[in-house]
Amino acid sequence: MLKTFLALLHIVLSVVLTAVVLLQHRKQSGFGGAFGGGTQADTGQWQRFSGLSKLTVIVAALFMLTSILLVLL
Question: How distant is the alpha carbon of residue 73 from its chain centre?
Answer without folding.
Answer: 24
